[in-house]
């Protein structure tokens, strides 16, 4: 089966846009990134399945029937993407009600590690793991 370059470019754009949105601080952008990565996974699985053939029934040769595994995996990916989307929608709604903003805040420990000066003996990551504050 020849590789369709257009489908490869579309998959690359969908995945890269989805991963870019996943790295943002807004929960709605993270949600859109999850949806795009899920759609990219579905496109990839359908492309990996090849062209559609006849359904698998008794008496048909194996060479002419379509492979049902990519279709089943795509259906599973749709369900998982839907569940994660609903969870993130609930989190974004709760954050907008409580904080009146959907931006993900820095963790207190992350701020402390970022502001801790590095000593000459050991790096700041080792200091933060032991709990020393110098």
Brief summary of the model shown:
The protein has helices spanning 5-22, 27-49, 68-99, 108-115, 124-130. The protein is mainly alpha-helical.
Structure characteristics:
134 residues, mainly alpha, Helix Hairpins, 2 domains, 5 helices, 66% helix, 0% strand, elongated
Q: If you had to describe this structure to a student in words, what would you say it looks like?
A:
With 134 residues, this protein is mainly alpha-helical. The protein has helices at residues 5-22, 27-49, 68-99, 108-115, 124-130. It folds into 2 domains: 1-52 and 66-103, Helix Hairpins (Orthogonal Bundle); 106-134, no CATH class. It is 66% helix and 0% strand. The longest helix has 32 residues, at 68-99. The termini are far apart.
